[in-house]
Design a protein that fits this description.
Shape: globular
CATH architecture: Roll
Structural class: alpha+beta
Order of helices and strands: EHEEEEH
CATH topology: 2,3-Dihydroxybiphenyl 1,2-Dioxygenase, domain 1
Strand content: 25-35%
Number of strands: 5
CATH class: Alpha Beta
CATH superfamily: 2,3-Dihydroxybiphenyl 1,2-Dioxygenase, domain 1
Mean pLDDT: 80
Length: 108
């Protein structure tokens, strides 16, 4: 089974973000500031991607970001994630944050 995760995170300071991740040993695989901001870093199979933050983002609140999770067989992951969420919250959160949507038959 092949799995790839690509967090897509907000970036308010491109230069210091590049400096920080390169200092940690990440390779910069994409560095673009025009016409839009997009940064991508990799380290031993870990991928971190950054985009321009919303203009009104207050980074002290840490309320935005995302993570894309690509898998070959989604049903197994959905089942495992749902079970963990149910153990943690006593239910599967389907609204609000955090949440997971119901997996429909034949969905991929």
């Amino acid at each position: 089974m092949s799995t790839t995760t690509v967090p897509l995170l907000p970036c308010v300071a491109p230069e210091s973000t590049v400096e920080f991740y390169e200092t940690l040993g990440f390779d910069t695989s994409d560095r673009q500031t025009k016409p839009y901001l997009y940064l991508a870093f990799s380290f031993e199979g870990v991928e971190l991607h950054f985009k321009e933050a919303a203009p009104d983002l207050d980074v002290s609140h840490e309320l935005t970001g995302g993570c894309l999770f690509f898998v070959d067989a989604v049903a197994g992951y959905h089942k495992a994630f749902s079970e963990r969420l149910r153990r943690r919250y006593g239910r599967i959160p389907a609204t609000g944050l955090p949440r997971i949507e119901r997996l429909r038959p034949a969905q991929s």
